[in-house]
Amino acid sequence: MTSNKITKHSTFKRSVYTEIVINAPIENVWRELTNFKEMPTWSKSLQKIEGNFKKNGQTEVHFMDNKGKVGIYKHELIHFEEGKLFGWSDPFILGIKDNHKYQLEKISETQTKLIQSDEANGFATLFMGNFIMNFFLKSYTEFNQTIKNRIELKN
């Protein structure tokens, strides 16, 4: 079961929300989600995170765009709870500030909900917001399904 949507909050603010239920314990999902060494072998978007992977840690996040080009973005992990959550909120393009989170919720001993969300704020959102959010929605939905398939094959 999945629930994916884009919300327009105002002229300069939009958000995307994606979720998927993975048939695996939360520990297994966290381990795969943070296995940045193997991530480039299966993820078409998030390639890896390098740096200080902890609360307020300075990191370099490697993302691949839809043309196969990898961009490296410096982010401080303002959202971090070991085994459950990580994310950042920084300017990323044309002054648009994003607030990206990967969050896990334990449903049962054998099921975990992966929530991937993002928020875009800034003047350029007026012109680029729909394009960016649609790209994020497609990318996050694909990432979520791919990691689900990968984890469930291992279990």
Automatic annotation (TrEMBL):
It comes from the Bacteria. Pfam families: Polyketide_cyc2 (PF10604). InterPro entries: Polyketide_cyclase/dehydratase, START-like_dom_sf. This is SRPBCC domain-containing protein. It comes from Aequorivita antarctica.
